Model the fold of this input.
Amino acid sequence: MYQRIRDLREDSDMNQTEIAAKLNCSQQTYSNYELGLRTIPPEILISLAKLHDTSIDYLLGLTDVRAPYPRT
Done:
């Protein structure tokens, strides 16, 4: 999961500080998420999925399909 979060950030050409600002957390906290040193709260996972236009299942490694779920 942590590698996917980092890959998505790098693919979006954003640095940790920019992502942290969008998630309303510190750069250090976000860095710890990417390194797997801190558990990612559900609300942050939801925000990351929305930010990167993907599903939480993709972030968690439950699927390799990067596309988000269809919105109804």
